[in-house]
Amino acid sequence: MARKSYPDEFKRDAVELYRDTEGATITQIADELGISGVTLSAWCKSAGVPIRHRNPTAAGAAPAGVESPDQELARLRAENQALRADKTRLATERDILRSAAKYFAGETNW
């Protein structure tokens, strides 16, 4: 199988997306970008970005019963933070895809 060559801008954007996305794994980001997880991991290591490992105990369901106002506030703040992080990730992905489309459109000889 032939090796793919990616532009430096795409590599930087992919590493930035991984670094800025809270709770995302290398595999998730790589799948979304259509690249190998090993490739993205190598790019992150060469850029000095530490690789996070998923913590299975971090994601928990709301406790049974009624929430206190403080618990509800904490839950809503966490949900808001997750939604903002998702919005940032999606905006970065959109920008990466736009850049890639421009790059590959410039390579065509129509």
SSE order and pairing:
Blueprint: H1 8-20, H2 26-33, H3 37-47, H4 69-107
Helix pairs in contact: 1-3, 1-4, 2-3
Distance between the termini: 27 Å
Number of helices: 4
The profile of the biggest β sheet is: none
Known CATH architecture of the domain at 1-52 and 72-90: Orthogonal Bundle
Catalogue the unreliable spans. Answer: none
* Helical residues, percent: 55-70%
State the CATH topology of the domain at 1-52 and 72-90.
Arc Repressor Mutant, subunit A
CATH class designation of the domain at 1-52 and 72-90: Mainly Alpha
The helix/strand class is mainly alpha
Q: What does this entry look like structurally?
A:
65% of the residues lie in helices and 0% in strands. With 110 residues, it is an all-alpha fold. The protein has a domain at 1-52 and 72-90: Arc Repressor Mutant, subunit A (Orthogonal Bundle), CATH 1.10.10. Helix 1 packs across helix 3 (37-47), helix 1 (8-20) packs antiparallel against helix 4 (69-107) and helix 2 crosses helix 3 (37-47). The longest helix is centred in the last third of the chain and has 39 residues, at 69-107. It is elongated and about 60 Å long. The model has no long low-confidence stretch (mean pLDDT 84).
